[in-house]
Design a protein that fits this description.
0% strand, mainly alpha, 3 helices, 101 residues
């Protein structure tokens, strides 16, 4: 467990910092930052690696931390997808309004 403790601690701190910063950025600017989709793949991959190692070696804290990384990755991608959907919908509504005039 000791060989996994430092990397998972660093990843958990980084994931929490990214999630808090993303929430603040979305609150302040009303848009999702562009790094959200990239970090989704990074946190998702790392989370599944830690979960698989945790199941293999029967280490529950490693499984929980891997689950946290996967949760953060899906929060980021959900925020990104909702923002893109609203942006496309807004553009479509503007085009419809322009055609009506």
């Amino acid at each position: 467990m000791i060989s996994y403790e430092i990397p998972i601690t660093v990843m958990s701190i980084f994931a929490n910092a990214v999630m808090i910063f993303t929430f603040y950025y979305v609150w302040a600017t009303k848009t999702t930052p562009s790094y959200a989709s990239t970090l989704f793949y990074f946190f998702n991959f790392a989370g599944f690696i830690y979960i698989s190692i945790g199941f293999k070696d029967q280490i529950v804290p490693l499984i929980k931390s891997g689950g946290q990384l996967i949760f953060v990755s899906y929060v980021l991608v959900a925020s990104f997808l909702v923002d893109r959907y609203l942006e496309i919908k807004r553009k479509r509504d503007e085009e419809i309004d322009e055609k009506k005039k």
